Amino acid sequence: MLPDYTISAVRRHAARTLISTQRVRVCTGKTKIRNRSTILTRNCYHGGKDFDCCNEEFFMNVPNTLTIFRVFFAVITFILIGLHRYDFALLFFLLAVATDFLDGWWARHFKQITVFGRVMDPFADKFLICGVFTCLLTIPELTFDRGGYPYWLMLQAWMVVVILGRELLVTSLRAFVEAAGGDFSAKWIGKWKMALQCIAVAACLLYLAGGAEWNIVNDRGTELMVQQFYRPDVAAQTKTVLAYGLDYVMGTRLWRKYIFFAMLVSLWMTIGITLLSGLDYCINAARMLRKQHERRLEKMPNRGT
Questions:
Q1: Domain spans of the chain?
Q2: Residue 122, CB-side half-sphere exposure with 13 Å CA sphere
Q3: 272 close to 196: Cβ distance less than 8 angstroms
Q4: What are the strands, taking DSSP E only, across 12-92?
Q5: Is 211 helix (H, G, I), strand (E, B) or coil?
Q6: Per-residue pLDDT of the chain (305 residues; tens, 9 = 90+)
Q7: How many CA atoms lie within 13 A of 229 on its CB side?
């Protein structure tokens, strides 16, 4: 009869071998087995979905690097908004949005999806959007209008609360559902929500870069913005590099008026799709949890028999 420690060692060895065999069975592509329990691979499919099994060697791949850069660009955007350099803030914000598109495309196309990316990518998106809207809320030119329009049409605190609340709610639901074994991947409405939020932020920054003025008056044939016409002391605030460039390219300052109305429309569309997206995720989470509960009840033994 073998000693107890020998039997325990054999059992541990058999368990490790079984885990390795199962991982090889569900993973296809270029695989490499190390210590019989760790699989390193670039091209790997897990459970029918792109997944990078224990990818330690390629942790800092291109998608993860782009995600980290997005966080870095977001911080720079926050700082530039605080310094009232809205033209450069818009530039870095667009760079951050570009990394959001590129890292997802690269990860799917080259099969470089990792656990770090699945966690960090949504965090970087929420950090960027929630942070930018919070910074924009501190700018008076966005919270009230001097042109005779109702102030509630502009960016309001409750709008930012809706955006923050939706992101926190979806994050909590995703953690709860996936912990229970469900799939809570992003929906198409979530992607549209992200796109509209980026458009709204870009319109707000462009509106601020143009001097936060929507009305144009003619003074002896010369186009002047209202605040320049009545308050020459604030005229220097409108002289940004981006404003000069657009004035020169378009040959008029009326683009500020179009940006003002585009900003209002995009803000309200963002709030609408944010509410719909949150409601859609809540309904899907409730359905998944109900199905999981029904499956657990079916697996339970019937005590009446």
A1: 166-305
A2: 16
A3: no
A4: 31-34, 38-41, 45-46, 49-50
A5: coil
A6: 545 545 555 455 555 544 443 443 334 344 443 433 333 333 443 444 444 444 444 567 899 999 999 999 999 999 999 998 999 999 999 999 999 999 989 988 888 888 888 889 989 999 999 999 999 999 988 887 655 667 788 899 999 999 999 999 988 888 887 777 776 777 788 889 999 999 999 999 998 888 776 666 555 555 555 555 444 444 445 567 788 788 788 877 778 888 888 999 999 999 999 999 999 988 988 888 888 778 888 887 765 54
A7: 13
